[in-house]
Amino acid sequence: MKLRSLVPALLAGLILLISSGCAVIDKGRTQMVVVRSAPEGAVGLVNGIEVGKTPFKIKLSRSNAATIELRKEGFENSSIVVMPVGNEYEKRFLRWGVDYDLGAMTDLTPSNINVALRPAIPSEDRGDP
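Now predict its structure.
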């Protein structure tokens, strides 16, 4: 094969590679999720593991769903499920297997969580014995 015919093929391949992008490099394997509550100071648990008090930021894997629970004395507990959904890389013509394997083809939703905690009703006010 002549070098003259190989160069255009290599350039075309390089252009396709560059235009497709690599989601792992661009997006990363994790995503920052911000959690706030009103009132502040609620204990945050991610998949049952305590991670801090609100407001807090936490990096979560883009490929897995997570349950975030907020607990504060005098208030009802609140749970939020963060789900991976396809992002702009999911819609591209050329996709890479490693991007799927590492979760870079998804974004976590919601990524900015604001929870208004509801006051707990004492049992004597509810008429419970």
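Strands lie at 30-38, 43-46, 49-53, 56-61, 66-71, 78-86, 106-109, 112-116.
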